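Backbone geometry tokens:
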Amino acid sequence: EDPGVRARSCNLLGNMCRHSGYFYEAFVTHGTLDALIERCADTDRTTRKFACFAIGNAGFHSDVLYRQLRSAIPPLVALLADEEDKTRANAAAALGNLVRNSAALCGDLVNAKALEALMELATSPTAVAEA
């Protein structure tokens, strides 16, 4: 597969959820969320970036998909250490969206050590140097 096609597909899926939750049910029906979560480990950095973007938007408008997005937490936490700035930013935003509409996934975030990883990202000397 062409990594450009994977990246653009993830971007499109993210944009489909950007302004409403209209496509949320279709994402569940077609297994889209599992595919996006798998793309978080893609060898292509752009694909990883847009997979985070899409997952974040899948959790933005409501908590309807939180149960299905639970398995996205460990890969998103891992991507907080990605080499790409925008991927780290998208992973952090996606994690934030997973607690935006309900507390259902708070325990999962704690168990995955998301808080520690986010604090490290926010306070690391590299973060200051890049700002």
User: Anything to note?
Assistant: The mean pLDDT is 95.
